[in-house]
UniProtKB/TrEMBL annotation:
Database matches in Gene3D superfamilies: Aspartate Aminotransferase, domain 1, Type I PLP-dependent aspartate aminotransferase-like (Major domain)
Taxon lineage: Bacteria, Pseudomonadati, Pseudomonadota, Betaproteobacteria, Burkholderiales
Any Pfam family: DegT_DnrJ_EryC1
Keyword Cell membrane: no
Name this polypeptide is given: Aminotransferase class I/II-fold pyridoxal phosphate-dependent enzyme
Annotated InterPro entries: DegT/StrS_aminotransferase, PyrdxlP-dep_Trfase, PyrdxlP-dep_Trfase_major, PyrdxlP-dep_Trfase_small
Family named by the database record: Belongs to the DegT/DnrJ/EryC1 family.
Keyword annotations from UniProtKB, A to Z: Aminotransferase, Pyridoxal phosphate, Transferase
Alphabetized GO MF terms: transaminase activity
Organism: Duganella qianjiadongensis
Length: 368
């Protein structure tokens, strides 16, 4: 038996003919940056998310960064981020010259705890970046209420949550802006790097469009010192092929999650994901928790089952953030989560039988 964590080749092979046709169309067009393919994908993706606009950028990190930058975040500003997230959430803040201010999660959902945000707000706070971690939406209503009260800008980090719903509304329309990644392994993945910002704020969208293209609205005329961060025509064309299949892929992930929830229920010491009734997650990751995480991962690997730890080290303990001066124990929830989480295989081409096999293996390992 061999069950990979995610079979990316199979994910893309399922659309091979359509992807090849899109590649040929771009090849034959002779136009590779900022053309019809990108504007058509932007329109389709905005419509999917229920936002007025999508702006294609080079990757998910840049999507968060450019949204913050366009909102005027800069040196001296503080931005509230989850203490447990992929480091890109923090890096986007740092690249603006601002300071990431970590806030601990709700332990049951791993997402930013709205009740803890107020205590972290200072006169310098300018923005909040809630992350829809593992594909489950953060509790956005109280976050937006706090933001309105303190005049803060909110950008959703939706890199793991394409299509997820909060009280029935899709991510990408819940904050002032939202940042998506199209890294190959994400729920909507390109065959390379890619990202997008969605927003219904026309002025903000215009500033992001300018920033992604050298600060220029008219070629060779530069209004602001911008960046080069564009989603290219080829990735846009490939993403346009995959977008109509996103919901089906998410449905298969949901079915796998249901098998895991059923087959793994009641194992002592094993914590399963919990879903509030207002959340419709898209299961980018199916993350369990166990005190003997490393033993479990090793035993699964010996049986040919792939797992990954998302993520082994909390951002505040990374050497990259040594300058912030945090130490072990400063964010105990995040630290415990990073010590104990394990992501099980899940993906649009994985079968329910495979999920049942993974669950049976876990049951066996943890009974021993
Ligand atoms: C993947 C990811 C990003 C960054 O996206 P890239 O396209 O890899 O730059 C940001 N935040 C989270 C939560 C992610 O999972």
């Amino acid at each position: 038996m061999s069950i990979p964590f995610l079979d990316l080749k199979a994910v893309n092979q399922a659309h091979a003919a359509e992807l090849e046709a899109a590649f040929k169309r771009v090849l034959d067009s002779g136009w590779y940056i900022l053309g019809n393919e990108t504007s058509q994908f932007e329109a389709a993706f905005a419509s999917y998310c229920g936002a007025d606009q999508a702006i294609g950028v080079a990757n998910g990190l840049d999507a968060i960064f450019l949204a913050l930058k366009a909102a005027g975040i800069g040196p001296g500003d503080e931005v509230i981020v989850p203490s447990n997230t992929f480091i890109a959430t923090w890096l986007a803040v740092s690249h603006c010259g601002a300071t990431p201010v970590p806030v601990e999660p709700v332990e049951a959902t791993y997402n930013l705890d709205p009740a803890r945000i107020a205590a972290a707000i200072t006169p310098r706070t300018r923005a909040i970046v809630p992350v829809h971690l593992y594909g489950q939406p953060a509790d956005m209503a109280p976050i937006m209420a706090l933001a309105a009260q303190h005049k803060l800008f909110v950008v959703e980090d939706a890199a793991q949550a394409h299509g997820a719903r909060y009280h029935g509304r899709r991510t990408g329309q819940l904050g002032h802006a939202a940042a998506f990644s199209f890294y190959p392994g994400k729920n909507l993945g390109a065959l390379g790097d890619g990202g997008a910002v969605t927003t219904s704020d026309a002025a903000l969208a215009e500033r992001i469009r300018t920033f992604r293209n050298y600060g220029s609205k008219v070629k060779y005329y530069n209004d602001v010192p911008g960046y080069n961060s564009r989603l290219d025509e080829l990735q846009s064309a490939l993403l346009a092929v995959k977008l109509p299949h996103l919901d089906a892929g998410n449905a298969q992930r949901r079915a796998i999650a249901a098998v895991y929830a059923r087959e793994l229920a009641g194992i002592p010491g094993l914590t399963l994901p919990q879903v509030p009734d207002w959340a419709e997650p898209v299961w980018h990751l199916y993350v369990v928790r166990h005190a003997q995480r490393d033993r479990l991962a090793k035993a699964l690997a010996e049986r040919g089952i792939g797992t990954i730890v998302h993520y082994p080290v909390a951002p505040h303990l990374q050497p990259a953030y040594a300058e912030l001066g945090y130490k072990e124990g400063d964010f105990p929830l995040a630290e415990a989560i990073h010590r104990e989480v394990l992501s099980l295989p899940i993906g649009p081409t994985m079968t329910l039988e495979q999920a049942a096999e993974v669950a049976a293996a876990i049951r066996q390992i943890l009974a021993a």
